[in-house]
From TrEMBL:
<keyword id="KW-0288">FMN</keyword>
<feature type="binding site">
    <location>
        <begin position="145"/>
        <end position="146"/>
    </location>
    <ligand>
        <name>FMN</name>
    </ligand>
</feature>
<feature type="domain" description="Pyridoxamine 5'-phosphate oxidase N-terminal">
    <location>
        <begin position="38"/>
        <end position="164"/>
    </location>
</feature>
<keyword id="KW-0664">Pyridoxine biosynthesis</keyword>
<feature type="binding site">
    <location>
        <begin position="81"/>
        <end position="82"/>
    </location>
    <ligand>
        <name>FMN</name>
    </ligand>
</feature>
<dbReference type="InterPro" id="IPR000659">
    <property type="entry name" value="Pyridox_Oxase"/>
</dbReference>
<feature type="binding site">
    <location>
        <position position="132"/>
    </location>
    <ligand>
        <name>substrate</name>
    </ligand>
</feature>
<comment type="pathway">
    <text>Cofactor metabolism; pyridoxal 5'-phosphate salvage; pyridoxal 5'-phosphate from pyridoxamine 5'-phosphate: step 1/1.</text>
</comment>
<feature type="binding site">
    <location>
        <begin position="66"/>
        <end position="71"/>
    </location>
    <ligand>
        <name>FMN</name>
    </ligand>
</feature>
<dbReference type="InterPro" id="IPR019576">
    <property type="entry name" value="Pyridoxamine_oxidase_dimer_C"/>
</dbReference>
<keyword id="KW-0560">Oxidoreductase</keyword>
<dbReference type="InterPro" id="IPR012349">
    <property type="entry name" value="Split_barrel_FMN-bd"/>
</dbReference>
<feature type="binding site">
    <location>
        <position position="110"/>
    </location>
    <ligand>
        <name>FMN</name>
    </ligand>
</feature>
<dbReference type="GO" id="GO:0010181">
    <property type="term" value="F:FMN binding"/>
</dbReference>
<keyword id="KW-0285">Flavoprotein</keyword>
<dbReference type="Pfam" id="PF10590">
    <property type="entry name" value="PNP_phzG_C"/>
</dbReference>
<feature type="binding site">
    <location>
        <begin position="196"/>
        <end position="198"/>
    </location>
    <ligand>
        <name>substrate</name>
    </ligand>
</feature>
Length: 217
């Protein structure tokens, strides 16, 4: 990239004018506000409103990020599913601290959760696995997530082989497939503001309740 291109990149900016976030807008605990914002993201027809960036750290301290879909949330935590042989699952087995980030850019909003990931029990995993489309169930068998493959055709061939195998019956739950519940202890809400005076509020667990602070942008 030459200097002229760098200059254009540095000049890219826009004003955030969709509205502010005031303390009177907040709920006593963060999940109620998150639910309201998620509902509004769905009603705005955003692409993949449940998509979240999941950040983990390997044994050397190297961070990794990837987009995963939120599949359930309640007062116990936020749930996602994955191949337990995947890189993120292996990271979480050794260091279960995790960050989740929801980037709702068209609404000029972001939400970040910090917490620890706990493996889901088998009953929860089986129930969700069999609610998925059959092709998605088969794909879970076909892909050894994060392993190296020499060509896409190998993956497609395995998928077609398994589709033939399971065409007349139920797809069993793979032993290597599961999920995590992120038990959160900190949640930050970010709303874009004019002149870069964004509104940020952070909820942090405080005994049985939540402590709420405004953060400088």
């Amino acid at each position: 990239m030459n200097d002229a291109q760098n200059l254009k990149l540095a000049a890219l900016r826009r004003e955030y004018t969709q509205g502010g976030l005031r303390r009177t807008d907040l709920t006593p605990e963060p999940l109620a506000l998150f639910e309201r914002w998620l509902k509004q993201a769905c009603e705005a027809n955003l692409s993949d409103p449940t998509a979240m960036c999941v950040a983990t750290v390997d044994e050397t301290g190297q961070p990794y990020q990837r987009i995963v879909l939120l599949k359930h949330f309640d007062e116990k935590g936020l749930v996602f599913y994955t191949n337990m042989g995947s890189r993120k699952a292996q990271h979480l087995e050794k260091n279960n601290k995790v960050s989740l980030h929801f980037p709702w850019y068209p609404l000029e909003r972001q939400v970040s959760f910090l917490g620890v990931a706990e493996r889901l029990n088998p009953i929860e995993v089986v129930k969700y696995f069999h609610s998925r489309p059959k092709d998605s169930q088969i794909a879970a068998w076909a892909s050894q997530q994060s392993s190296r493959i020499s060509a896409r055709s190998i993956l497609e061939g395995k998928f077609l082989e398994l589709k033939q195998k399971f065409q007349n019956g139920e797809v069993p739950l793979p032993s290597f497939w599961g999920g995590f519940r992120v038990v959160f202890n900190s949640v930050e809400f970010w709303q874009g503001g004019a002149n870069r005076l964004h509104d940020r509020f952070i909820y942090q667990r405080d005994g049985d309740g939540w402590k709420i602070d405004r953060l400088a942008p």
